[in-house]
């Protein structure tokens, strides 16, 4: 009896060829869950998906043997979820993918030796990318094993602190096809190793030498590389102007140069370094020396610059004028935390940089309405504008941004004076995907609701401490922004479970921060966990109504969660143990969770399989057996102990946020200064150990006299500094602060040197006469014999220098 075809219809996929199905699977690469569902349809789909998969990222290292047998065509292996990757694992990977493997990521893995690396490099002849970042135990022997990978093109070795010139030399000799190498924080590598890389690997295109103790000796062969495009020299203290002057010519093919935090390189050295680099398009001088008028000489031949970053530098009007005159094709400019940025300079640049697309003026406190007016009038093609903490910008200036810059995609106006009218104007930027409105206290639900209507492409929203926001505004955002991926509602105390239930409609939500929201409970968190399957980052610190029920919901539904903060939550051992079923959880912070016991933490730590970082209070350190630490370290988990006291919210209603910025900073400074005084007095009063059995009073007085004479010799002739010191001490004496100890509390020695101008000669002479009898003897460091424990004097000096910097920063 023949079967009726109508009862058993033939699947349409049967007639499709394997190549067509592979094309369909290529469209599913962005969603791994969808591809997994495809493989579970039938055996045929399961086999096809196994043949199609090209990348592998196992959750547990114990499953690697079964995975290798199922997927035979793997090109990329990522072991970031496997902190313990021993030699046996690397040997099995190299044997299974001898002819297909092209890249492997071991940046989060440890416990492998030269045996495993030698197997990878020797067997996998098609291997072109190898990431060994954070391998702090990597030695020269293991580096020498990498040299067997003859076809290697990209190598990352950041923080390989045990590798020296010998190991790098072996790599340079064996891997001559290298195009990218990162040696960041490899502190044992010197000019010799870097020079070998430059001489042997002629095809280098990207070179990262950040934080190395190198000098200009290795730069000569580096700048001769014909294909070098990117050179990163962040915080290399051995490179200075004197050495750079010896360079004859720069690298002609260089396109990206980063010399951030290089305080010994000024405009003179920069001119030598970029001499002849006509293709240079990206230049970063962040947190370096002052950028003065001579900077124009460097920009004269760099008319093709597309990006300049001067974060944290001292700039002048002449600097900004040079940028506006010579860099007319500039598309990205970063002046974050730059002192010296004024309306005059910003207006001059904006009128000439009409092609500018990204601008960062974060913490430029002198910027006002005039600057925003010039920027919005000339730079109409802006796509990114960051102006956090620009407190002098008025609400009318925010309105101009929305009226003139309608192509904005990213905007940060955290801490600015923006009201509903300004937010209404920003709604015209319909292409916005990132909007940060933190500490904007005047925003209400009325205008925030319209953001959800007009900015439907929004993916990131920051509402940190927006006290007036309620469930009405959050619900409108959730309904109008279906592709929302990150939202920060920290300390929005009027937000309740209704907001979380509405946000559960955003199925692509990956990061949620609801720290300090007391009205949120486990009901809202359960709704997020049930619907937002892609949630990876969660911060519920100080959410006093989220308990074990919310943790159980996370354990059942949020299997992609990687990072969670449970501090100050009423979670017990049951809830913590439930989280252990989340296989991808790597980072967890547990501080001041009163419902936890030592036994509960012990059981949870042993249950977690993929945990890599845990923050715990020091009170639990003595309660956890040493054997447990050994097991966790064997798995690759690191413990971070914190001794923080229980924090009480000092400003729950956000009243300080309503004050002018200078008043808030003054209150903060006074509290920090008061705390510093208390700590310092404790250090001064601490009794130091003595050595009466070895030193007599006569010998001690001789040493003291010698130190006093040495002080006078070193300071002979410094009349001006002495006058300034007398002047400041005289002022303190008139206020009742005559001792040198209180002089340091008032600002420190550095602050004495930083006095602007000072008084005239007559005032100095008068103060000197008034304080002649009360001044102490010439100051000198007390002679203290070597002790076994660190001396408090060292910490006092460090605190003095730190406090002096705080004073100067606050005054600026």
TrEMBL record:
InterPro entries linked: F-box-like_dom_sf, FBXL15_LRR, Leu-rich_rpt_Cys-con_subtyp, LRR_dom_sf
Organism per entry: Abeliophyllum distichum
Protein name: F-box/LRR-repeat protein 3
Gene3D superfamilies: Ribonuclease Inhibitor
Domain F-box/LRR-repeat protein 15-like leucin rich repeat: 158-293, 325-528, 531-616
PANTHER family: F-BOX_LRR-REPEAT PROTEIN 3, PARTNER OF PAIRED, ISOFORM B-RELATED
Coiled-coil positions: none
Pfam families noted in UniProt: DUF7885 (PF25372)
């Amino acid at each position: 009896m023949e079967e009726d075809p109508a009862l058993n219809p033939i699947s349409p996929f049967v007639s499709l060829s394997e190549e067509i199905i592979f094309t369909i699977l290529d469209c599913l690469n962005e969603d791994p869950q969808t591809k997994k569902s495809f493989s579970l349809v039938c055996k045929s789909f399961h086999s096809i998906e196994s043949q199609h998969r090209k990348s592998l990222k196992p959750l547990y290292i114990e499953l690697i043997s079964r995975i290798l047998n199922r997927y035979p065509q793997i090109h990329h292996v990522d072991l970031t979820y496997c902190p313990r990757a021993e030699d046996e694992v690397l040997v099995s990977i190299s044997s299974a993918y001898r002819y297909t493997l092209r890249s492997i990521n071991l940046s989060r893995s440890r416990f492998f030796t030269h045996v495993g690396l030698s197997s990878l490099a020797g067997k996998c002849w098609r291997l072109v990318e190898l990431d060994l970042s954070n391998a702090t135990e990597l030695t020269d022997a293991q580096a020498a094993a990498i040299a067997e990978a003859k076809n290697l093109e990209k190598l990352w070795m950041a923080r390989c602190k045990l590798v020296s010139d010998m190991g790098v030399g072996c790599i340079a000799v064996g891997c001559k096809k290298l195009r990218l190498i990162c040696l960041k924080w490899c502190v044992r590598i010197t000019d010799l190793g870097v020079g070998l890389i430059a001489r042997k690997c002629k095809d280098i295109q990207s070179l990262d030498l950040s934080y190395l103790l190198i000098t200009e000796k290795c730069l000569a062969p580096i700048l001769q590389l014909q294909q070098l495009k990117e050179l990163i020299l962040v915080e290399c203290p051995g490179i200075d102007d004197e050495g750079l002057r010896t360079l004859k010519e720069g690298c002609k093919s260089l396109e990206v140069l980063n010399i951030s935090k290089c305080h010994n390189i000024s405009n003179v050295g920069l001119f030598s370094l970029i001499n002849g680099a006509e293709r240079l398009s990206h230049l970063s001088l962040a947190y370096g020396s002052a950028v003065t008028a001579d900077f124009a000489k460097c920009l004269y031949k760099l008319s093709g610059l597309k990006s300049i970053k001067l974060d944290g530098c001292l700039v002048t009007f002449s600097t900004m004028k040079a940028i506006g005159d010579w860099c007319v094709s500039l598309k990205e400019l970063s002046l974050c935390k730059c002192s010296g940025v004024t309306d005059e300079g910003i207006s001059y640049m904006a009128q000439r940089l009409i092609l500018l697309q990204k601008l960062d003026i974060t913490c430029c406190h002198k910027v006002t309405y005039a600057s925003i007016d010039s920027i919005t009038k000339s730079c109409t093609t802006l796509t990114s504008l960051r102006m956090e903490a620009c407190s002098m910008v008025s609400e009318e200036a925010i309105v101009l941004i929305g009226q003139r810059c309608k192509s904005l995609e990213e905007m940060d106006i955290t801490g600015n004076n923006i009201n509903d009218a300004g937010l209404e104007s920003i709604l015209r930027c319909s292409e916005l995907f990132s909007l940060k409105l933190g500490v904007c206290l005047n925003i209400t639900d009325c205008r925030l609701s319209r953001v959800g209507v007009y900015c439907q492409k929004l993916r990131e929203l920051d509402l940190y401490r927006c006290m007036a926001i309620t469930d009405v505004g959050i619900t409108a955002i959730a309904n109008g922004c279906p592709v929302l991926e990150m939202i920060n509602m920290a300390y929005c105390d009027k937000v309740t479970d209704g907001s979380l239930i509405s946000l559960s409609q955003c199925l692509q939500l990956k990061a949620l921060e609801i720290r300090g929201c007391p009205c949120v409970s486990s009901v809202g968190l359960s709704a997020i966990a049930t619907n937002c399957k892609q949630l990876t980052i969660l911060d519920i610190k100080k959410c006093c109504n989220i308990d074990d029920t919310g943790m159980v919901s996370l354990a059942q539904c949020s299997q992609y969660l990687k990072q969670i903060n449970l501090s100050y939550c009423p979670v017990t051992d049951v809830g913590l143990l439930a989280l252990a079923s989340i296989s991808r959880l790597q980072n967890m912070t547990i501080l001041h969770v009163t419902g936890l016991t030592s036994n509960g933490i012990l059981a949870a730590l042993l249950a977690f399989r993929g945990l890599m970082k845990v923050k715990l209070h020091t009170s639990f350190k003595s309660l956890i057996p040493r054997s447990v630490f050994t097991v966790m370290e064997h798995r690759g988990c690191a413990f971070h102990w914190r001794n923080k006291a229980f924090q009480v919210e000092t400003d729950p209603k956000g009243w300080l946020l309503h004050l002018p910025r200078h008043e808030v900073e003054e209150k903060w400074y006074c509290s920090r200064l008061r705390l510093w005084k208390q700590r310092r007095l404790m250090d001064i009063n601490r009794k130091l150990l003595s050595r009466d059995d070895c030193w007599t009073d006569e010998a001690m007085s001789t040493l003291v006299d010698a130190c006093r004479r040495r002080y006078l010799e070193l300071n002979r002739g410094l009349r001006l500094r002495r006058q300034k010191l007398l002047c400041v001490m005289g002022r303190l004496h008139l206020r009742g602060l005559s001792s040198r100890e209180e002089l340091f509390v008032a600002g420190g020695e550095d602050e004495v040197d930083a006095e602007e101008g000072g008084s005239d000669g007559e005032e100095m002479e008068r103060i000197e006469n008034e304080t002649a009898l009360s001044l102490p003897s010439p100051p000198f460091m007390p002679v203290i014999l070597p002790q076994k424990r660190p001396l408090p004097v060292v910490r006092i000096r460090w605190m003095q220098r730190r406090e002096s910097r705080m004073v100067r920063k606050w005054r600026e």
